[in-house]
């Protein structure tokens, strides 16, 4: 992600952090489902990374589902991370936080078992290829990468509206994931009568 894109997203989420949890339920579908899919992929993960963790909604559920795991939340927005830290304070040292773009691996010598992208990759414009490459580098061999995200829309006006909200809906993510991971699950689902489609993907590091 270049500096201009990062700056625009930072400004966008400075406002949206205030309304995120109250509004996103209406269109960020499948977030609980991908957590269940990842649990089936990896029964007892030791280290989990969520890229674009936002307010910590998914990390809170992952912390409860995997009580022995250490979790890391990464996000570009200081405003979102501030809310996430507050929400997950009861989990103490099991949680760690990174404020940065995800354009390079962060695991160093301690690879992750699971990496989750929940409605974040479609906003990395440019940069989604680098993010997936970084995730594969951060995973141990056989580790799981899970994605739920916007896929496509046949409505030009809707695609244009989503671009104004920093989201691309051109069906570009799923083929690239399938090409670079060992696919365990992939599924495309219509939303609001086909106004758009979103997808699930679970893959293994080769």
What descriptive keywords fit this protein?
Rossmann fold, alpha/beta, 206 residues, 8 helices, seven-stranded mixed sheet
Q: Biggest β-sheet, characterized?
A: 7 strands, mixed
Helix content: 25-40%
| Radius of gyration (Å) | 16 Å
**Helix-strand makeup class:** alpha/beta
Give the count of helical stretches: 8
Compressed to H and E, one letter per element, the order equals HHHEHEHEEHEHHEE
Into which percentage range does the β-strand content fall? 25-35%
Instruction: Please write the CATH class name.
Output: Alpha Beta
* Uncertain spans: none
The domain tally reads 1
Would you tell me which CATH topology applies?
Answer: Rossmann fold
Written description of the protein model:
The structure is a single chain. The protein has one domain (3-204): Vaccinia Virus protein VP39 (Rossmann fold, 3-Layer(aba) Sandwich). The protein is α/β, with parallel strands linked by helices. It has helices at 3-16, 20-23, 31-41, 57-65, 78-87, 128-138, 156-164, 173-180, and strands spanning 47-51, 70-75, 95-99, 112-118, 139-152, 182-191, 196-204. The mean pLDDT is 91. Helix 3 (31-41) runs parallel beside helix 4 (57-65).
